[in-house]
Protein: SusD/RagB family nutrient-binding outer membrane lipoprotein
Organism: Maribacter litopenaei
Amino acid sequence: MKTMKKLYSLLTILILGSCTQDFEDINTNPNTPVNVQPSLLLRQVIYDYGEQMSYEGFTAGNLLGQYTTALDFNLFDRHNLKSPQLGGNPWPIFYQNLRDNEIILDLSTDNPSFKVYEGSARIMKAYMAAALTDLFGDVPYFEAFKGQDGTVTPEYDSQESIYMDTDGIFDNLQKGIEALQSYNGTIALEGDILFNGDLDGWERFANSLKIKYLMRISSKMDVSNELQTLFSEGNFISENSQNAIFNFTDGEPNNFRLARLRIGDFNNFVMSETMDEILTSLDDARISRLFRPYSNSAGGDEYNGLLNGIDASSTIVSLADYSLAGTIFRENTGLLDANFMTSMETHFLLAEAAQRGFISADAQNLYEIGVNQAFEYWQVALPDEYLSGTGALDNGDPLENIITQKWISNMINGYEGWIEYRRTGHPQLKTISASLNNNLIPVRMPYPSEEEALNNQNYTTAANNTEGNCINVKVWWDQE
């Protein structure tokens, strides 16, 4: 037995020795590039983020924004946000894509041949960082994306600093615009599935984002001068043809992910009572695009919504009594877009700015442009009397009407509807059926459990600043 052990040890030494000799040469794959091309990364970041967040926005975001409700697997819909089910954990989506985008940014600033990528990389960084902090509040940012430098437990930065400091949201938008304007090379921006390499499109995108984020922080500081300048210059997304979107297809692999769910999971989502009441009160023709008549309707053309947050263990409901999401979200996803920023959203934001007196402009005109473009975006004909009847700006509270129309138009971006509700209080969301959050509508997403395990010290500080990672603690721009 001892002899066998000695032979085994000798063989092990010989094997290890032979494996380590010339290891680097032997184990280098000549077909694997040492450096990734920014064009490939840009395409990946735009598609991966847009595809995943469209799914997230429809599943979890639409529950929070009360566009749809869940019949089952609905702890999240009952506002137990620490129990994501079909969606509800966007944290890794943000950090994976922000990390890859940071590689593009580093390449663009280190290598003159890649300079054309700087503007789009800075704008995408601002866009994704804003979505991240608007959901969670304080997050790792300035020390994040530096794992290759040894920083694996980054500190959490305040939302205010992420918005306002150097290398923050506004700074990157401005630097991105300057990089676009100063670029005089001949190398094209490849991998750009938003604007097909059109640098002017990226500049309009950045200015629309400036309008959006200035409105978002408008309760914290005077944003009138900056908004007025942006409006007067007019270099923002102003037509649907300029939207920051990419198209899904009807078939795999680039169709909307809801089309790939098993039918039982898709049938989990039905129209919410909130959406039903708003669309019905407006006699809004978009209801037939966004939803389907419920199976048990007498005439086969009626719609019905369910109050969010039922207790599925004690409340029995029949799928046939409620309206499923429209075919555009499953059978006909070639008609659907991954939506980053649009003309309709830009015009609704400007209409709100005019209505609040932040800019000198015709709020009604901006509102009506937004409504027209929203119907066009969803491929529904605008009824002749809509803007003089139920959809008129002065049919009730003008400010509520502006924000409600923006809420309807953003159904593919449900998180946005929830974020803007938190900022404005519109539209009036309902107390859900069986709340697991003391009948309160959450005002932030909780940090995921893996942060407590992997970045414990910094997580603990952030959790303490939010009363134990509480979903009822407002983010910076939402605090009075």
Summary: The longest helix spans residues 38-64. The radius of gyration is 25 Å. The CA atoms of residues 375 and 382 lie 6 Å apart.
